[in-house]
Amino acid sequence: MLSRCRAAASSLAPSRSSCRSVHYVAPGGTNPPPVRVQRASRLRGRFDKGDIELFKEICGQTTDPSRYPLASSVAKNVVVYDGNTIRKSLAASSRGETRDEFMAEFHDCLLQGPGVFAIKGCMPDHSVLDRANAAFRTIIDRERRESGVKGDHFAPAGNNERVWNSFQKHAVEDPQGFVDYYANEVLDTVFEAWLGPGYRVTAQTNIVKPGGRAQQPHRDYHLGFQSEDVASRFPIVSQIASQLLTLQAAVAHTDMPLISGPTQLLPFSQHFDYGYTAYRHPEFIDVFRSSMVQLELAKGDAVFFNPALFHAAGDNDSTDFDRWANLFQVSACWGKPMESVDATAVLRAVWPHVQNLAKKSGHDAPGVQALLKAICDGYSFPTNLDKDPPPPDGHCPPTQLDRAFRALESDKTTAQLEEVLERYEQMRLP
């Protein structure tokens, strides 16, 4: 499907491609006629009617339920999974094989399919969400007193309440609540399905108040946060590839009835190659508004989507209901996360609670692994290879994640862990 869409995009705009002549000299010295080779344009020109029609065609597709046999349903072209089913499957004796099957479906949905899926009951313990909400409220009130109104993405400042870097702030404000929240093997399975090992988690809490207006439809980080002028300077193939570096997600911290404005989504729109420059244009906005869908979510449900999917937070048309969500932007290990997270500070804050969880459930328990993978840097680079050389049997020095797992297995205290992490940081410095 993806290659078909891209082939169609090229055929609609032949003037944006150029041709070059390739000459081949045979060993005997004879020269055959030049071969005309089509070369795709590096950059993108103006949009025309054909682009709009192609965009409509791409977004007019229908999700095939038979492609996702592990899902519980398809609603408004969004693939829907049941969190309890996933957890039971991951806990079964064939966990590795079953996990791979779920990961394959998640990845296919995000890349080749509609680009979005939901997991009902992704966070089943509402007391964990209530505790997180209390921590976020404390942080919001403190930051408002100290800093005033903050800016927002794709919405006017002051309309919503937002906690930037809620990931680290949550850990410092309520370490036990943070551990309960991120010891979630379902999240880990989804994140790794799209991004592979070593992913980095960042999170931002967003509260949309009654009367809060919808965002402008957009694509997300990386290129979605750049101006159109800057985005247009990146080669088209780089724009397409950038969607593989990030995963977007939203966990509902309250119920989200339609009147409260859950996220507006345009399934399949990630297949339009030029969307990072197109989403600001009125013609594409009109298509979005006429074709987008919204899913009513219950507290604890989560939505995951390709960052190239056109989307927007919706209008909160209620009169007395604040819509709470924790928004994830999870980065591949070789991408640059949007926010700087001090993993050492997070580990220092939560370490005794990590140890307690490991003692109760085992060091290798999926929840413990998910928690440490969310916190730690699981990639070896960049580093100082003079001070932090690769081991004799490999090319990659041990990661912060490796060291944290070893510290957990040897039951190191918080002070001992800090010594380990300090040595690790010093080895990586120039």
Automatic annotation (TrEMBL):
Gene3D superfamilies associated with the record: q2cbj1_9rhob like domain
One example GO MF annotation: phytanoyl-CoA dioxygenase activity
An annotated GO BP: fatty acid alpha-oxidation
Pfam families tied to this protein: PhyH
Signal peptide: none
PANTHER family cross-referenced by the UniProt entry: PHYTANOYL-COA ALPHA-HYDROXYLASE (PTHR21308), PHYTANOYL-COA DIOXYGENASE FAMILY PROTEIN (AFU_ORTHOLOGUE AFUA_2G09620) (PTHR21308:SF8)
Protein's UniProt name: Phytanoyl-CoA dioxygenase
Taxonomic source organism: Saitozyma podzolica
